[in-house]
Each structure stands twice: as C-alpha cells, then as structure tokens.
C-alpha cells in the first residue's frame, strides 16, 4: 500500500494521528500492525476509486493518459525487489528500481514502488520471485507512446484472494 498517496485521495483526516505517526516512514519491520492495517482497510472500504482494467484498454495510444487510474488482476513480472538503495526508488530506472510490470495490447505498464510500503516478509518474497499473480490499482504518471510504456504509481497491490479466480 502506498499510504501517503492513498491519504491524498482519502483526505488527510482519514487516518488517526497515531497511525500516521507510526507509518511516517513506511511499515515498521518486526512490529505488530494489526490496528493500523484495520484502520487503513476501513479507510479503503469507504473510498470509491474508479479504475480501468488494463485488459479492457484496447487502444492505449488514445485511451491512456496521465491521471488515469488503472487496475489489474493477473500474472505480472517483478524486478529489482531486493534493492535497498534509496536512490533506486527516488530516481526511476527500469534496470535498478524496484518495480512491477505487465504487458497488455502492445504496451508495457510499469509500476515502480518503494519497498518500505511492503507489509510482510511473505509479500517481500512474492515481489522478489520475478513472476507472480498480483492484483492492484495504480495512477498513470507518464505515457511514452513512442516506446509504448506507461509509468504508473501504485496505490495498492497484493496477492489476490484465491477464491477470485
């Protein structure tokens, strides 16, 4: 979960001051976060985010633009998840930044992410696998039609419920 970006959409008052303080630098490692995660889940349930599934985008050149909210529920590729270098997060590079990517209708949808917002060791292992089933929502930040690439900032992504297949 990209908590800062979600708070922008939900409003600054969506989370309690104690939760915002605890999560100011990402999800703390080695701590129980049940109360905070429940609070975030409740906030997400109250939000209404309209997203377009990348599989339904037939003509990315005319349909994809900055600000579009996209979603997916499919097998994706992951790259550079083991990176601990802050510069790899701050300065996007396909070769070095932690990211998720998928291809649809001739375009590559790339989602660089900050590993501090990965919640568990299991989730960290999943994004290190190189190839996994994920579901997620992201906001398009840049489109390069010449290279057929879309850079999107993830709001949330995770392992889909097994009963959703």
CATH architecture assignment name of the largest domain: Beta Barrel
Q: Span from first to last CA?
A: 22 Å
CATH topology of the largest domain: OB fold (Dihydrolipoamide Acetyltransferase, E2P)
Low-confidence stretches: none
- Order of H and E elements: HHHEHEHEEHEE
- Total number of helices: 6
Helical amount among residues, as a percent range? 25-40%
Strand order, sheet with most strands: 2-3-4-6-5
Q: How many discrete structural domains?
A: 2
Number of strands: 6
Class derived from helix and strand content: alpha/beta
Largest sheet: 5 strands, mixed, barrel
Radius of gyration: 16 Å
Shape: globular
CATH C-level class of the largest domain is Mainly Beta
Report the sheet-strand fraction. 25-35%
Question: How much is the average pLDDT?
Answer: 88
């Amino acid at each position: 979960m990209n908590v800062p970006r979600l708070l922008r959409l939900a409003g600054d008052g969506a989370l309690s001051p104690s939760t915002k303080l605890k999560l100011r630098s990402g999800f703390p490692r080695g701590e129980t976060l049940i109360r905070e995660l429940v609070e975030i889940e409740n906030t997400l349930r109250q939000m209404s985010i309209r997203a377009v599934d990348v599989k339904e985008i037939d003509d990315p050149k005319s349909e994809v633009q900055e600000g579009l909210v996209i979603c997916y529920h499919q097998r994706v590729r992951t790259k550079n998840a083991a990176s601990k270098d802050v510069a790899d997060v701050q300065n996007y590079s396909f070769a070095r930044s932690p990211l998720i990517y998928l291809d649809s209708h001739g375009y590559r949808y790339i989602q660089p992410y900050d590993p501090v917002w990965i919640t568990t060791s299991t989730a960290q292992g999943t994004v290190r696998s190189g190839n996994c089933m994920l579901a997620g929502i992201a906001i398009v930040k840049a489109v390069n039609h010449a290279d057929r690439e879309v850079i999107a900032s993830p709001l949330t992504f995770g392992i889909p419920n097994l009963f959703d297949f």
